[in-house]
Design brief:
Shape: globular
Number of strands: 0
Distance between the termini: 48 Å
Radius of gyration: 16 Å
Structural class: mainly alpha
Order of helices and strands: HHHHHH
């Protein structure tokens, strides 16, 4: 796998951006929302996620055509940009939109990460491992979002 990444620069950039997004997305979680550290980590997360999704949209190595992972990249891009636009416009309810879009993009990032790992397990079929692992992470992520975000948002009023 390492040899493959080293000979495919876009795949290497994609992996590095994914690692950066995982790092920045994880670091933003424990800190106070809205302060300068949150904004800095949030910008870093946004930039890494946009780059990650753009490199995903430019990669046709797996299927040779615009496939299902390209659609997922578009959804991910829409989610992270939706969170960014909510902050920039600051219209009524913007904090809720920002929180849910960004949390959703992070859950999607975690689902993609787990799916990538699951797809590497030798005895597991590719499609089934990707779908089952992704859906499991998304289900857990949505449950946690619905339980935790209302309290976080209420404490910020």
């Amino acid at each position: 796998m390492i040899e493959h990444l080293l000979s495919h620069w876009m795949g290497l950039v994609h992996v590095l951006l994914a690692l950066a997004a995982l790092l920045f997305g994880t670091l933003v979680l424990p800190f106070r929302k809205g302060d300068s550290r949150h904004r800095l980590l949030g910008r870093a997360y946004l930039i890494s996620m946009v780059g990650l999704n753009l490199t995903a949209l430019l990669n046709y190595e797996l299927f040779g055509y615009f496939g299902p992972f390209h659609w997922v990249a578009l959804l991910s891009l829409a989610s992270v940009l939706g969170g960014y636009v909510a902050v920039r416009r600051k219209s009524s309810g913007w904090k809720h939109r920002h929180a849910y879009f960004m949390a959703g993009s992070y859950v999607g990032l975690l689902a993609a990460t787990v799916a990538e790992v699951a797809s590497r397990v030798p005895s597991w079929p590719f499609g089934i491992s990707v779908v089952v692992s992704s859906l499991l992470v998304i289900l857990i992520g949505v449950v946690l979002m619905m339980r935790m975000l209302p309290g976080i948002l209420k404490s910020r009023r």
